[in-house]
Write a structure and sequence with these properties.
Helices cover 34% and strands 25% of the residues. Helix 7 packs across helix 13. By secondary structure, the chain is α/β, with parallel strands linked by helices. It is built from 17 helices and 23 strands. The longest helix has 22 residues. The structure holds xanthosine-5'-monophosphate (XMP).
């Protein structure tokens, strides 16, 4: 790849991925690698600049992690963050003093010395004219003596050296975390580092990336054939569109409909890929097979296992019919790669076991094609739009692999799935068409995930002159950054009322709608 690159050496911080995301948002390509990569690796990587991450270790003295000597020998700019600042201080001849405890929190940092990193970047000014930054700080160990050639760049009352710089060598370090959004100017600082100090031109743009990705896929695949499991999700859709752009009919997509998809989803996927893109798509309607195996099963984990197993089964059967296929394409994205420890320097490249293709490469004896391996989710979406996929498809809420199987409590039945699909579609339609006046955004955009859940309990109602005895649907809508924790969305009552009315009037078989107001934790986002 011909892009200018930033190397991020990871010392084990929880938030290293955020550094990479901020750098990519500045349109600069970067990769995360473990801090103990070889000197040769660093030279070969040929970075335009290096960022040293924070660490999970509680104090500096807990471990003896150091940046490889090559970091200091290359002559490129280096930015140390938190632990990265300590290692820079020590390796450059300064002093770090350990402390017993460590705390994280909001701090106001005063900028000093008009350094190239912070000059002109500030949140407010003090009465006596000092530029101040609102940051997320990790207190604890402290740099107590600047290394030779360094000057003070930032301070707080409790942390007199909260930032330091050697401008001749273009080494900068901050005790706080510019990668987290709580540090208001963090993105500006990282952009300043990569664009101005490292002089990266900003050549990482998804629209231009298509050409390069297409060339790479063509070179990798040659004249061989590729199969891909299309799920309707963002990652597999974008992967399919990209590979199709590269090799056209050498790609066959297999779309397994397990009968647990959202309303009209099968049709939408076929219209898009077979219809508009003219891709080869094998559409397998396996509803009967899945429902057969799920009959009588009520345990959520058991249901997940059955759906996963049957998926592999159906996909394998279809794949074996395509005797010429030598490659299996997957929509693996960069966070999957980083989380599974599969960065290029680690040998054991574990592939995230996507629900739909778990274990398939081994059993099918296929080579893996993963054209999105370097991309973050935002980049995958941008690429999808650049490839001509509809905005609504690319910016859809996530949908679990087992589909409605985990949104129908207890036993999964086709009649339940049919009711749920219709109720869910009404809810989503209303979220997409109702705008929140202050932000001008739709409630669909303001929520991270929203859906209906089928409760197989009957309650009494009245409709017209008659008494009804029908099922209940729960609505779930959450706001979350990372899906690890979530708040229930405070949807307007009028919106909830309208959705409830429409569902009860339009979906015969449902006479009661409730709204889920549980946070995660202690509840989860899905009900099963
Ligand atoms: P929970 O319910 O654990 O959900 O709070 C967190 C996120 O994960 C999704 N999810 C799944 N995705 N297979 C998937 O592919 C699953 O079995 C599964 N279970 C939950 C859920 O939709 C939410 O986005």
């Amino acid at each position: 790849m011909s892009h200018q690159k930033i190397l991020i050496l990871d010392f084990g911080s929880q938030v290293t991925q955020l550094i990479a995301r901020r750098v990519r948002e500045s349109h600069v390509y970067c990769e995360i690698h473990p801090n103990d990569v070889s000197e040769a690796f660093i030279r070969e990587f040929d970075p335009q600049g290096i960022i040293l991450s924070g660490s999970h270790a509680s104090t500096y003295e807990d471990h003896q992690l150091r940046a490889p000597q090559a970091v200091w020998d290359l002559g490129v700019p280096v930015l140390g963050i938190c632990f990265g600042m300590f290692t820079m201080a020590v390796q450059q001849g300064g002093k770090v003093e350990p402390s017993e405890h460590r705390e994280f929190g909001y701090a106001e940092v005063r900028a000093h010395g008009h350094t190239a990193l912070l000059d002109g970047i500030e949140d407010f000014r003090t009465a006596d004219g000092h530029g101040m930054l609102k940051v997320w700080m990790s207190h604890g160990d402290k740099v107590t003596e600047l290394p030779p050639g360094f000057k003070l760049m930032a301070s707080t009352p409790s942390c007199p050296i909260a930032g330091m710089a050697n401008e001749e060598k273009r080494y900068y370090a901050v005790q706080f975390h510019p990668e987290v959004t709580h540090t208001l100017q963090g993105r500006a600082m990282l952009e300043r580092f990569v664009r101005d100090i490292c002089a990266c031109s900003g050549d990482w743009v998804m629209g231009n990336y298509i050409e390069e990705a297409v060339a790479r896929i063509r070179e990798q695949v040659g004249d061989e054939e590729v199969i891909l499991g299309l799920s309707g999700g963002v990652d597999s859709s974008v992967a399919a569109a990209l590979i199709h752009r590269a090799i056209g009919d050498q790609l066959t997509c297999v779309f397994v409909d397990h009968g647990l998809l959202r309303l009209n989803e099968g049709q939408l996927v076929m219209d898009m890929f077979a219809g508009r893109l003219h891709a080869k798509v094998v559409h397998v309607d396996a509803t009967a097979q899945f429902m057969g195996h799920l009959a009588g099963v009520t345990d959520p984990e058991q249901k997940r296992k059955i759906i996963g197993r049957e998926f592999v089964e159906v996909f394998q059967t279809e794949a074996r019919k395509l005797a010429n296929a030598k490659w299996l394409a997957q929509g693996t994205i960069y966070p999957d790669v980083v989380e599974s420890g599969g960065t290029k320097t680690k040998k054991a490249t574990t592939i995230k076991s996507h629900h739909n293709v778990g274990g398939l490469p081994e059993t099918l004896g296929l080579k893996l094609l993963e054209p999105l391996r370097e991309l973050f989710k935002d980049e995958v979406r941008e690429l999808g739009v650049a490839l001509g996929l509809p905005h609504d498809m690319v910016y859809r809420h996530p949908f679990p692999g087992p589909g409605l199987g985990v949104r129908i409590l207890g036993e999964v039945r086709k009649d339940y799935a049919d009711l749920l699909r219709r109720a869910d579609a009404i809810f989503i339609e209303e979220l997409r068409t109702t705008t929140e006046p202050h932000t001008g955004k739709t409630w669909y955009e303001l929520t991270s995930q929203a859906f209906a859940v089928f409760l197989p309990v009957k309650s009494v109602g009245v409709m017209g002159d008659g008494r009804t005895y029908e099922y209940v649907v729960a609505l779930r809508a959450v706001e979350t950054q990372d899906f690890m924790t979530a708040h229930w969305a405070e949807l307007p009552h009028a919106l909830l009322g309208k959705v409830s009315n429409r569902i009860i009037n339009e979906v015969r078989g449902i006479n009661r709608v409730v709204y889920d107001i549980s946070g995660k934790p202690p509840a989860t986002i899905e009900w099963e």
